[in-house]
Design a protein that fits this description.
The complex is a heterodimer. Chain A is mainly β. Chain A is 0% helix and 59% strand. Chain A has no helices and eleven strands. In chain A, strand 4 and strand 5 form a beta hairpin. Chain A starts with a strand and ends with a strand. Chain B has no helices and eleven strands. In chain B, strands 2, 4, 5, 6, 9, 10 and 11 form a seven-stranded mixed sheet that branches. A four-stranded antiparallel sheet of chain B has the order 1-3-8-7, with no helix packed on it. The relative contact order of chain B is 0.34. The chains are: A mainly beta, B mainly beta.
Chain lengths: 111, 114
């Protein structure tokens, strides 16, 4: 079935440290894996995405890695800052038609 | 500003009632998606329309229906409302039919059923 599991559900890290959020997906045919950030009371916004023909992608302090064999992908945020505090959602496409989201990770950066 | 407009921003109604949520996609986007976000929950995919036609369906209840009009705006109709329907309903749009590109979300319509 179409399932995306996301861990942890909450994460607190000291400012300046790194944060890692992990997701697994069920459909080996999934080919697109975006990450969205939702600040409190705001709309979700895309921060980075990766396609199945790539193993890693970086954008400044944010990176995503994909392991197709294990069917999991991870978000890495380095040198965390207070403005990184938000809920992060991973997602995966199923059959190129449905984008299924994980249950979210509430990240809190401790000053 | 994502360019996606949703109305109303807030709506309070009673159980058993019917409401309509409206969404205008970004200029040029042909796909419209509806998502439901309950308190402390993830984003549950409801339905997608592409250029006026239903493209994909998620866990949308039979009491809910949607459509996309010729001008590409979309409406989500929720009927026989129950307390559990209280949620934030997001509309998103994209420039493609398949789910392989960025979704631009509106600010959401917060529905409270009393």
């Amino acid at each position: 079935g179409e399932n995306v599991e996301q861990h942890p559900s909450t994460l607190s890290v000291q400012e300046g440290d790194s944060a890692v959020i992990k997701c697994t997906y069920s459909d080996s045919a999934s080919n697109y894996f975006p990450w969205y950030k939702q600040e409190l009371g705001k709309r979700p916004q895309l921060i980075i995405d990766i396609r199945s023909n790539v193993g890693e992608k970086k954008d400044q302090r944010i990176a995503v890695t994909l392991n197709k064999t294990a069917k999991h992908f991870s978000l890495h945020i380095t040198e965390t800052q207070p403005e990184d505090s938000a809920v992060y959602f991973c997602a995966a496409t199923f059959g190129n038609e449905k984008l299924t989201f994980g249950t979210g990770t509430r990240l809190t950066i401790i000053p | 500003d994502s360019g996606v407009t949703q109305t109303p921003k807030h709506l309070i109604t009673a159980t058993g009632q019917r409401v309509t949520l409206r969404c205008s996609p970004r200029s040029g986007d042909l796909s419209v998606y509806w998502y439901q976000q309950s308190l402390d929950q993830g984003l549950q995919f409801l339905i997608q329309y592409y250029n006026g036609e239903e493209r994909a369906k998620g866990n949308i209840l039979e009491r809910f229906s949607a459509q996309q009009f010729p001008d590409l705006h979309s409406e989500l109709n929720l009927s026989s409302l129950e307390l559990g329907d209280s949620a934030l309903y997001f509309c998103a749009s994209s420039d493609r039919a398949g789910n392989t590109g960025e979704l631009f979300f509106g600010e959401g319509s917060r529905l409270t059923v009393l």
